[in-house]
């Protein structure tokens, strides 16, 4: 059996969405290591089927890519050579090129390299896997893994997963069913405005829900603003593993197209997805769990991949009313709470 290097040089959500593909590679290999960026490292360490996590901040990808460093590239090549990988599988989104990483894999002496590539790869790729239109990111990555010799185990349903057991978050959670609202996103165009998110929290509280507002360590002020007097801000009180546990215990999660949406899916929690159509929902909607997709999917920003909203007032999301969010939560979370009570 071969030793495989899997590569996904993106953010938390991207790494989580590639999880089933990593498991498929692991099922037919002697070991799978994962090469990720700093922004995806915490997610990589949560994934089943991954033996070792390696980090490389690539200058050709990411929201704020680093300057090119010859020393960093040479250090990566030395590390890859030392691991003596038999195969490398480079996972990318549809708009990204795997060829810079494929070249480095060749330079590191990896004898077989596979990826999905729109660009002509020359001799850099042994498998240039095609991507049919309309596939979800999870399915596209899994298709590449299968083409690279992977295969899901018979008892693997192909959904997102994280390592278990999850840690306790009893210090954060109320003694009643609760909803999590995560108002931020690494790409601003994909997040609701703070005041809009605050109205959602207030409406959910008025409907009888306990509401926890999550965020990163630098988002205390945002979480407090969104929580107001109706919710409880918990920004900065969870690492990604504890956030997974917090989401797992929630009746529902309300968030934009961002990493916590996919983390919620990985722990089986329904998601009300406030989805800005700057990227296609059919590729990026939370996978494998009940979802209510809210937001104008035909808005003028559709398909632009804009990082900042190109339309004044962010209408694709501001058109979503707080009452609409409450109704969506009731539809998803009500069934989940009833199931848990019945169990």
UniProtKB/TrEMBL annotation:
Pfam families noted in UniProt: Glyco_transf_9 (PF01075)
Query: Could you name the domain of life of the organism this protein comes from?
Result: Bacteria
A Gene Ontology biological process noted in the UniProt record is:
lipopolysaccharide core region biosynthetic process
**Alphabetic keyword roster:** Glycosyltransferase, Transferase
Instruction: Provide the Gene Ontology terms for cellular component.
Output: cytosol
The protein's matches in InterPro entries, at most eight in alphabetical order, are given as:
Glyco_trans_9, LPS_LOS_Heptosyltrfase
UniProt-recorded Gene Ontology molecular function terms: ADP-heptose-lipopolysaccharide heptosyltransferase activity
CDD domains tied to this protein: GT9_LPS_heptosyltransferase
Q: List residues traversing the bilayer.
A: none
The residues forming a coiled coil are none
Q: Tell me what this protein is called.
A: ADP-heptose:LPS heptosyltransferase
Per the UniProt entry, what species is this protein from, by scientific name?
Cellulomonas cellasea
Species lineage: Bacteria, Bacillati, Actinomycetota, Actinomycetes, Micrococcales
């Amino acid at each position: 059996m071969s030793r495989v290097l899997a590569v996904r040089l993106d953010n938390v959500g991207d790494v989580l969405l590639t999880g089933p593909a990593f498991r498929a590679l692991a099922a037919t290999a002697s070991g799978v290591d994962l090469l990720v960026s700093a922004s995806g490292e915490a997610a990589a360490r949560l994934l089943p089927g991954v033996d070792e996590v390696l980090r490389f901040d690539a200058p050709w990808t990411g929201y704020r890519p680093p300057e090119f460093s010859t020393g960093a590239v040479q250090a990566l090549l030395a590390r890859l050579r030392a691991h003596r990988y038999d195969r490398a599988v480079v996972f990318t989104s549809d708009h990204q090129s795997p060829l810079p990483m494929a070249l480095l894999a060749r330079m590191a002496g990896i004898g077989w390299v596979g990826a999905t590539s729109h660009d002509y790869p020359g001799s850099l790729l042994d498998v240039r896997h095609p991507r049919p239109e309309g596939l979800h990111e999870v399915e596209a990555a899994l298709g590449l893994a299968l083409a690279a010799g992977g295969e899901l185990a018979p008892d693997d349903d192909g959904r997102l997963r994280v390592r278990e057991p999850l840690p306790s978050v009893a210090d954060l959670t109320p003694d009643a069913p609760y909803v999590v609202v995560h108002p931020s996103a690494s790409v601003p165009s994909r997040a609701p405005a703070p005041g809009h998110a605050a109205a959602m929290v207030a409406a959910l509280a008025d409907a009888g829900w306990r509401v926890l507002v999550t965020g990163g360590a630098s988002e205390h002020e945002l979480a407090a603003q969104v929580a107001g007097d109706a919710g409880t801000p918990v920004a900065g009180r969870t690492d990604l593993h504890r956030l997974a546990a917090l989401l797992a215990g929630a009746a529902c999660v309300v968030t934009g197209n961002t990493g916590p949406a996919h983390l919620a899916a990985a722990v089986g929690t329904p998601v009300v997805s406030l989805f800005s159509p700057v990227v296609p929902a059919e590729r990026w909607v939370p996978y494998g769990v009940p979802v209510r997709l809210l937001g104008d999917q035909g808005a003028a920003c559709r398909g632009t991949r804009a990082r900042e909203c190109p339309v004044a007032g962010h209408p694709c999301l501001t058109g979503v009313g707080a009452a609409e969010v409450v109704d969506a939560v009731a539809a998803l979370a009500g069934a989940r709470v009833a199931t848990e009570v019945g169990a």
